[in-house]
Amino acid sequence: MGSLTYIEKSWFGRVLHDVVYTYADVTVFSLPMLLYVWVTQPFVDRALTAPALVTWITMVGVATLIRGGWIRPLGTETLGWVSGRYALLPVRVAYYNLTLIVAVFGGLAVEGLVGRTGLAVAWATCVGIGATLVFPTVVDITYHRFAQWRR
């Protein structure tokens, strides 16, 4: 009858596919916080945009590296990025937006306490890297706990 054709992508094609996938994943579920930053920026006296963008881009970059298999997530043996199950959508929305909140407002707080410019962006980078490396572990734990609860 029919046959399936298997065409392997070049390294660039794989990287591009991983970047687009993780960009869509992180961006769509981070929209509440990203829209908050975009809408309130003209009305606040602190720069929310730089730490938010740095966190967002860092999350996409680290997720791409995890999805492509170049780095391993922390605390789990599961390789690759998190599956797109419907049950995980609330976890994604909550986790990505909380990560952005901690990165943006935590960075501004650290910058205000220390008094050095640029610390908010450095804080945002660290939070984005750490939170994204731990995200697959959080999803594993959450998914397995809810799977036991549903039985």
Automatic annotation (TrEMBL):
Residues 12-140 form the DUF8215 domain. The chain crosses the membrane at residues 20-39, 51-72, 93-114, 120-143. Keywords: Membrane, Transmembrane, Transmembrane helix. The keyword Signal does not apply. InterPro entries: DUF8215. Pfam families: DUF8215. This is DUF8215 domain-containing protein. It comes from Halapricum hydrolyticum.
